[in-house]
Design brief:
By secondary structure, the protein is α+β, with helices and mostly antiparallel strands. The chain contains five helices and four strands, in the order ααααβαβββ. It has a four-stranded mixed β-sheet, with helices on one face. Helix 1 crosses helix 3 and helix 2 runs antiparallel to helix 3. The chain is elongated.
């Protein structure tokens, strides 16, 4: 969030300083590429901001914003101090670490979730139609284009939710089995529980 706020602030500051030259259509030749890329980002983001969407819809605008800001701030690149370079390296390392650890945690709990689901189905007494295992599981096993959502059940292709997968116990259910996994960011031991209604 801090990185996004800084990026938006830098873009707004750059546009504000260039506003007079933009109004008079006197953009310096070395700044036209930067203005072009900022306009591309703005044009892309306009419908996304109006309609709304998830974070992944904003990602394609990021390269345009970065290149636009870099193109308009070209003069400042000549006098980089060691402190600026160290700060940039620290921010890049922090974001890289966050991305790697977050991806690792997501894959760890997903691996445990699928292990729990496969164990549940392996006995032969439980079928996929008996399980609410999440969007991916139910979509994989029970997808139906004509599916009608049932009140009291999850919206994604649930036939009978006799068994549920969750992160914690729920009222009105019995815990069948727990599957622990190690979470790195922040560090704790999480669990996936198989519940029976």
């Amino acid at each position: 969030m801090l990185g996004g706020a800084l990026l938006v602030g830098a873009a707004a500051g750059t546009v504000a300083t260039l506003w007079r030259s933009l109004l008079r259509a006197r953009i310096q030749a070395d700044r036209t590429a930067g203005v072009f890329f900022l306009l591309c980002a703005g044009i892309y983001l306009s419908p996304v901001l109006v309609i709304g969407g998830w974070d992944r819809y904003y990602i394609p605008a990021l390269p345009f914003l970065l290149i636009g800001i870099a193109g308009l701030a070209v003069a400042s690149w000549h006098a980089q101090t060691r402190a600026r370079m160290a700060l940039a390296a620290l921010l890049l390392a922090s974001l890289s670490l966050y991305a790697v650890l977050g991806t690792r945690d997501y894959l760890a709990w997903n691996r445990v979730r699928w292990t729990a689901l496969n164990d549940l189905l392996a006995g032969g007494k439980v079928t996929a139609a008996d399980v609410d295992g999440g969007f991916e599981f139910n979509g994989w096993y029970l997808y139906d284009a004509a599916y009608k959502e049932m009140p009291g059940k999850s919206w994604y292709w649930v036939e009978r939710d006799t068994y549920l997968l969750a992160f914690a116990e729920m009222p009105g259910t019995v815990t069948v089995k727990e599957y622990p996994y190690i979470h790195w960011l922040p560090p704790y031991t999480g669990k996936i529980v198989v519940l029976k209604q």
